[in-house]
Amino acid sequence: MSMSEFIPNMRSLTKGLSARRPRLGPLPGQDAAGSAVPPLRPRVEIPVREPSPEVEAIDRHRARGCFLARQEAWDDLGQEICDADAARLLSPGLTPVAALLAEGARADVVGAAKAAVMRGEPRAAMAVLGALEVNLDDMPGCPAIAYVVAMAHVDVAHAWRGASRVRDLAPQRRDAFDRHMRAAMDLVDQFDPFENDSPLWASVRCAVLEVDARPSQRVSDDYEDLIELSPQVPDYMTRLGRDLLPGRFGTWELLDSQARRLISLTRDVWGTGAYAWVYIGALEADPRAVRRLDTELFVEGLHEILERHPDQHMANRLASFAGLTLGRTPMEGESLQRLVDCFGWIVQDHLREMHPMLWAKAPVPGPPDHAELEEADLSRRGRARAISTLAEYYAPALDAGRRLVFTPGGLQMLKGD
Question: Which domain of life is it from (predicted)?
Answer without folding.
Answer: Bacteria
